[in-house]
Amino acid sequence: MVCKELTDVLCDYLEGTLDPETREELEEHFNDCPPCMAFLSTYKKTSNLCRQCIGQTEIPPALEGKLKSFVQNKLKKGR
Amino acid sequence: MSDNDLQLVKEMQAGKPEAFEEMVRNYQKRVYSLAYNVTHNQSDAEDVAQEVFLRVCNKINTFLGKAAFSSWVYRITLNVSFMKLKSRKKIQQIPFDDIFPKYQEDGFHAEKINDWSQKADDVLLTSESRKIIQKAINQLPEKEKAVFVLRDIEGLPTEKVCDILKLSVPAVKSRLHRSRLFLRKRLSNYFDDFQ
């Protein structure tokens, strides 16, 4: 396997859907190729960073009550 | 569709007010979270949540159960969120070329790849790095952003993302991969300078 083939299979590799033979070949390549290992680490880190930075969203407590009243009012008007 | 959602939909279609209230209770956190992760603005996300539940109430009789109810709600949330974004000032989008690594003719890397993944932990909580990440996500084209937010931010399984967006598994994986490559490139520009 050469570095260029990495980008074609990276998504499947991380999803765990790569066939065992290709997976083994890819992991052997990672062990021998620091640039591909660096690419893998930064590719994985990108998703993790995005999730950590923006993915912790709590609904404002006031909104929960507001949505309930909003829907109740709309239903009353609709009758 | 879960048995609980199936029953809930039947009751909403029969016009039972308590079913609508239960639906709001069950979905408000997911709707708000997705709306916020697309718009990155609390006030916009609140408006989106309100509009989503209004549409669900008004259109419940058009829901035929071909997809899961939750997928239908997610789809409405995405549509309303992107409409909200479009009503705001135009976001500068960066062309999607140049996201792939460069290779030599023999297939090996043609440029140095810095491993900034460890360095990123040290700067994660700075407001500057948060702004860089948020800006990069906002620069994703709509179709890629929808897949990235659902899969990598909301953490939904690939099959669920397919159901929500009515896309095949290869199409979702392709958009996800392009999103990650784009974001990786943007973050690399930032973190390479940091080193």
- Quick one: overall form of chain B? elongated
Distance between the termini of chain B: 49 Å
Residue-averaged pLDDT of chain B, rounded?
Answer: 89
**Could you please say which CATH topology of the largest domain in chain B applies here?**
Rna Polymerase Sigma Factor, Chain: A
**Biggest sheet statistics of chain A:** none
Coarse structural class of chain A: mainly alpha
Write the CATH architecture name of the largest domain in chain B. Orthogonal Bundle
Helical proportion of chain A, percent range: over 70%
Could you explain how this protein is built, in words?
The complex is a heterodimer of chains A (79) and B (195). Chain A has one domain (3-78). Chain A contains four helices and no strands. Chain A has helices at residues 6-15, 20-32, 34-54, 61-78. Chain A is elongated and about 65 Å long. The N and C termini of chain A lie far apart (66 Å). Chain B folds into two domains: 3-87, RNA polymerase sigma factor, region 2, helix turn helix motif (Rna Polymerase Sigma Factor, Chain: A); 117-194, Orthogonal Bundle (Arc Repressor Mutant, subunit A). The radius of gyration of chain B is 20 Å and the shape is elongated. Chain B contains nine helices and no strands. The termini of chain B are far apart. Classes of the chains: A mainly alpha (79), B mainly alpha (195).
